[in-house]
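Forum > Structural Biology > Help requests

Title: Can anyone predict the 3D structure of Probable membrane transporter protein?

Hi all, first post here. I have the sequence for Probable membrane transporter protein but no way to get a structure on my laptop. I'd be grateful if someone could post the structure tokens.
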Amino acid sequence: MEWVVLVIIGLTAGTIGSLVGLGGGIIVVPALLYFGSYTDFLSEITPQIAVGTSLIIMIFTGLSSTLSYIKHKTVDYKSGLIFFAGSGPGSIIGAWVNKDLDMDSFNLYLGFFIIIVAIILLIRNRLKPIEIFQQSRYQRSFKDPQGYTYRYGFPPLLGAGFAFVVGFTSGLFGIGGGSLMVPAMILIFLFPPHVAIATSMFMVFLSALVSSTTHVFLGNINWLYALALIPGAWFGAKLGSYFNTKLHSNTLVRVLRIILILVGLRLIYQGLL
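Reply #1:
Sure, ran it for you. Structure tokens for Probable membrane transporter protein below:
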């Protein structure tokens, strides 16, 4: 039964993560902690194991969705590599900080972070894009299937600096980082939404490679659980990237932010106890 649960967790995380650019870890980590602490399905789950195993899954989620987005030509490789220059080192530092957290502290910090993510999802459509960086020297353009050309840009140092923070949270909490990166790319740097999500998943893939290597070195991977999660995450990511090109994700985002708030409050309650 535990293998069925893990496949379902992977499928759900891959689909949601790829569809809205979250990476999926924000689903995997709380699910592993819940089933490891309050059911008989999974055992020996610590915050370090949950995070390390989640980041292994993020490699496959990021790769699967990136390959799908490549077919639609929505991945901005150059911008993604600039972001990775910051997120890569940040993810390593986050992974090292994670090793000193006990279950209560981790639940508390993760709970607050998840609620912050839910708030960002709540308000991001109400915020106005900031055009202050559109005169920067680094400029990009994207033409959608309807022939409309988007122009966007950002100072590379600022982009890499913001990605460093995103990478740190990824290595610390085992999430993909897209929960922070996608809104920033859309609102601050004026990325087209589909390009922001696709490029975010490309960065998630690269950052997960780096941070998961650190967790492997620290012995934080449950390989049996990872092998059960990977197939669902792989096909879920492809499913999510397909829906991303066909559907407006607003309905899913509304449901997701309610779930995240409930999960965040529950984690905070557990941490305080």
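The longest strand covers residues 139-143. The CA atoms of residues 98 and 172 lie 5 Å apart.
Shout if anything looks off.
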